[in-house]
Amino acid sequence: MERSLREKVIDLLKEKEMSVTEICRELDLDPERAKEVYGVIKTLPKILKRKGLQVVMLPPKCMNCGFEFENPKPSKCPKCRGERISEARFKIV
Ligand SMILES: [Zn+2]
Hints:
Strand content: 5-15%
Number of helices: 3
Shape: globular
CATH topology: Arc Repressor Mutant, subunit A
Strand order of the largest sheet: 1-3-2
Helix content: 25-40%
Radius of gyration: 14 Å
Distance between the termini: 27 Å
Number of domains: 1
Bound molecules: zinc ion
Structural class: alpha+beta
Order of helices and strands: HEHHEE
Number of strands: 3
Largest sheet: 3 strands, antiparallel
């Protein structure tokens, strides 16, 4: 039986911290499905709570000034207006 996308994402994030782009690459998903993967990650805290696990987000950072974002998908740095922003990474602990 084919495992669901959610189960695959959980398995990956249990092993190591990953960004959505890396998850897509690892699972051989079209980059256009990144949104779907984000959606899955959003549902994880509720599901994992029952198992005593949680999802940790390592925040995106501005590559210009180092500003750390709380929003997982920022477009611009509020401090320096930089647009080179590292991707948020996620991990299950
Ligand atoms: Zn900045």
